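Protein modeling request. Please complete all fields; requests missing the sequence field cannot be processed.
Requester role: graduate student
Desired output: 3D structure, token encoding
Chains: 1
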Amino acid sequence: MLNEVHLNADPNTISTLDEPVLQTLLRDAKAIGRKLIVVVCPPLGDERELHDWDLWGPLFLCLMLASILTINASDDQGAAVFSAVFIFVWLGGLVVTINAKLLGSKIMFFQTYCAMGYCLAPICLGALFCWIIPWFFVNLLLCVIAWAWACWAALRFFRNTVNADREVLVVYPVGLFYVFFTWMVLVGI
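Delivered output (189 residues):
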């Protein structure tokens, strides 16, 4: 017979397994919104929000970026662009996350993955504006701002997670990761 240990024996406590689906979806949507505020407007958000990781927000942002770039692609390349963006977001995030962990990052694997995904938000906004605005030099400026914004948001998350002498080794691949997607937005792949 299995021995069960109940850490929370209060019968009045409602488990998330017992809550209605709508309440769960609203709770998750609010959490995604709070995490987006941390990235989009860092002074207004609490950095600790990203430590409570989820993959719904990064998935949504990945799908948003892939969809915007697919719309910009030619008709015969749409599926390939969508697939490539989707795969590169998740594999690139995996490589950057493994790099951070190998360099001694103090945060959990999925926390890093979550932060990398949420920091795509400025690039998604930049892609949306570049889709609307047809002028190259304006798009170039928007992409540089989106890249710097994404790197700034990621740097705020990674700061103090590794030794100061290794911080550049963690942040450099993050910058390259975002340069890749910013370049895709700029050239309109």
